């Protein structure tokens, strides 16, 4: 897989590590949203997630937004969103 298939989350420019997503690999299952919300709130609720996944109804492509609240799960070796992604659409650089 080439690096160009991954896009960097917009709000992580102040972090040493960056969360990257390959929208071509993502199926839109939103497991990453649930894992992230549990990390932040200890409850499953996509509205509390730092990552939001959307499917563009016009072209079917996956789009995502990464909020400033993303801390890349500093107490874990692998952020929760990455560990639950079965398609390996997320990774850290």
Structural description of this entry:
This protein is α+β, with helices and mostly antiparallel strands and 93 residues long. It has one domain. The chain has helices at residues 31-41, 80-84, and strands at 7-8, 19-21, 51-55, 62-66, 90-92. Strands 1-2-5 form a three-stranded antiparallel β-sheet, with no helix packed on it. The protein has a two-stranded antiparallel sheet with strand order 3-4.
Q: What is the secondary structure topology, with strand pairs?
A:
Blueprint: E1 7-8, E2 19-21, H1 31-41, E3 51-55, E4 62-66, H2 80-84, E5 90-92
Antiparallel strand pairs: 1-2, 2-5, 3-4
State the gist of this model.
The chain has 93 residues and is α+β, with helices and mostly antiparallel strands.
Question: Which consecutive residue ranges, at least 5 long each, have pLDDT under 50?
Answer: none
Radius of gyration: 12 Å
Mean pLDDT across all amino acids: 85
State the end-to-end CA separation. Answer: 14 Å
Which structural class best describes the helix and strand composition? alpha+beta
Topology order in helix (H) and strand (E) letters? EEHEEHE
> What share of the residues does DSSP label as strand, in percent?
15-25%
Q: Which sheet architecture does the biggest sheet show?
A: 3 strands, antiparallel
Count of helix runs: 2
């Amino acid at each position: 897989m080439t690096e160009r298939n991954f896009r960097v989350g917009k709000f992580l420019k102040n972090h040493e590590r960056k969360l990257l997503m390959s929208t071509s690999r993502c199926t839109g299952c939103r497991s990453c949203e649930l894992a992230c919300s549990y990390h932040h709130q200890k409850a499953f609720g996509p509205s509390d997630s730092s990552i939001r996944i959307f499917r563009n109804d016009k072209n079917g492509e996956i789009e995502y937004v990464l909020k400033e609240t993303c801390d890349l799960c500093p107490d874990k070796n692998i952020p929760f969103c990455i560990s639950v992604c079965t398609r390996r659409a997320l990774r850290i650089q």
